[in-house]
Amino acid sequence: MRACVRLCLLTVALLATPLTAHAEWKPVEKIEPYAVSGQSGAELYRSIGEKGPKLGIARAIAYTNFKLTWGVRNYKPGAKDCVLTAGRPKLIITYALPKPSGPLPPAVQKSWDTFIAGVSTHEKVHGESMVQMVHDIEAATDGLTLADDPKCSKTRAEVVRRLGAISKARVQASRDFDRVEFGNGGNLQKLVFSLVTGP
Length: 199
Prior knowledge:
The protein is an alpha+beta fold. Helix content is about 50%, strand content about 20%.
């Protein structure tokens, strides 16, 4: 369930695309379903374990990923200073969610609907954290000005430092959220238990 953070990609995109004042923007959200099979909750969950998104050596129930690029961003060197001007972010959030490959018995379908609604809500929290991350990047870098940096080298290094701190905080918050959700009595633990022990 952990959301993937592609810090290297994000950093390269931020530095390579040269941040307009904060313009209104909205993320693009997509769902990429993966097929699972079974005629009971236990069978469906077993299929999730076999076919779910692979994260390292384990598989997850669902997965939230993102791609972040920026419109024109300029590092503007002056006689002595460097100013980073704003660009419009483009954030694409992709949710990988399980989907039964065929019809389910009515009671199992009802149980599945409850399960997938809860999983989707969980993943949406990860998506919202990615949106907040972009807002944090905007706040931390738009109009960033460093004195005595005519070649903008110190400014670029400072952007990388700030990006690293923002990304690290988001990853930790995501892990903390998952730990609670999957912990004893956590929401996802309850959802899985209800699915597996249901019809």
